[in-house]
Description:
This protein is 38% helix and 13% strand. It is an alpha/beta fold. It has a three-stranded antiparallel beta sheet with strand order 5-6-7, with no helix packed on it. It has a two-stranded parallel sheet with strand order 1-4. Strands 2-3 form a two-stranded parallel ribbon. A hairpin with a 4-residue loop joins strand 6 (145-148) and strand 7 (153-155). The radius of gyration is 20 Å and the shape is globular. Residues 40-44 have low confidence and may be disordered.
Amino acid sequence: MAHDIASDMYRAGLRSVTMVQRSKTAIYPMEWVAKGQEDANNNLRVLYNTAIPTTVADAISASRPNKITRDIVAVNFEAWGALEQGRFEALERAGFRVDRKMPMFDNILNRYGGYYIDVGASSLIANGEVKVKSGVPIKTLNADGIEFADGTRTPADVIVLATGQDHDYRNQLSLILGSDVAQRLEDFWGLDEEGEVRNIMKTAGKDA
């Protein structure tokens, strides 16, 4: 979220854009994600294309056990990352801390974040067009900008919070359906004891 906001602000012509990074972030280049859909002949989008209905592609994709998918993606991304160390080193030279270890599926299914599928913002950071303040907690906000725990200050006219979202969907549903209904719903997302995504594409409610 923060990457997309920073990129939009830069492209909208704001004079100076600084991203405050709280912890290491995994970067997954979009071309790697697309490459994961190649077949042996390097034909892209084997599943998701105009010839195969999306519902069929989804069913095929979801039929593979998550454990196997996770390990395949992890091995592929590790191999591609070894060939492109310079991509991450450029970010680290700019002050951005990169998590090079966390597999993409772990971030998506268990952590609910902590990653960025790179569609262009990383190059802005590496080139210094979007600045980074990383690893130092914010102490306070003031009329002129942000003061950090190490005593440094970053002047700002606009501060945008991109700190994630509430992962418990029941909190939002209680506002729509009432707390009585929301409390009858089970956990959503993350992996259950069988390695399946919790309560997705199936009934999520408990018996009344």
